[in-house]
Amino acid sequence: MTAGPGRYRSLRAVLATVGGLAGLAAILPAAELRAEAACSPGRVDLRWPGGRQSFVVEVADDTAERALGLMARETLSPDAGMLFVYEAPRAAQFWMKDTLIPLDMIFADAAGVVTRVHGNAVPLDLTPIDGGSDVQFVLEVNGGLAERLGIVPGAVLRHPAIGDAAAWPCK
Questions:
Q1: Is residue 33 very low, low, confident or very high in pLDDT (cuts 50, 70, 90)?
Q2: Which pLDDT band, with edges at 50, 70 and 90, does 56 fall under?
Q3: What torsion do the CA atoms of 92, 161, 79, 76 make, to the nearest 10 degrees?
């Protein structure tokens, strides 16, 4: 099939339109991709009035992983933490047995809303740290970080494990 001069003009117009749409489409998926990247299993986001922070996390979502937690670690990167995930809300108490670095414990309910923050848990201390009775998620980060950032009760977590009940959903 031979294309005449009019056919090229039409093809150029179609390509220009498609190119414009492709440019627009490239913007929309980028925002979607950012939301998906923020909601990956290895990352938790927090937001609160006046702040926002993301952490690279290890997820402890079974009994053995939760029992081990961050024990025996000598360091924790400033942007890292561990997210403890329980199957359902429950009473939660933590301790620092065999934990060598000070930690902040950020307790959250089934919607990912922070209910308590315990700052600077003392390494190796066996004193129970009470998170409350309605805890489904606990984020552990370096000691003192929650206070420096301003993370307080009412802050909201975003992570795929929070699911449909999320106060700050992934999508």
A1: very low
A2: very high
A3: 50
Domain boundaries, the chain: 1-38, 41-165
**CA atoms of 169 and 148, how far apart (whole Å):** 25
What kind of fold does domain 41-165 have according to CATH? Jelly Rolls (2.60.120)
Burial class of residue 108 in the structure, from the number of CB atoms within 10 Å of its CB (0-12 exposed, 13-18 middle, 19+ buried) = buried
CA dihedral 100, 158, 149, 80 (to 10 degrees): 30
Q: Which residue in the block uniquely carries the two structure tokens 């329980």?
A: 86
| Digit-coded pLDDT (tens) for 106-156 | 999 999 999 999 999 999 999 999 999 999 999 999 999 999 999 999 999
CA-nearest of 141, 143, 41, 55 to 85 is 41
State pTM to two decimals.
Answer: 0.79
Q: Could you identify the residue written with the tokens 């060598």?
A: 100
Distances, alpha carbon 115 to alpha carbons 14, 28, 75, in Å: 55, 34, 26
Exposed / middle / buried, residue 62 (Cβ in 10 Å: 0-12, 13-18, 19+) = exposed
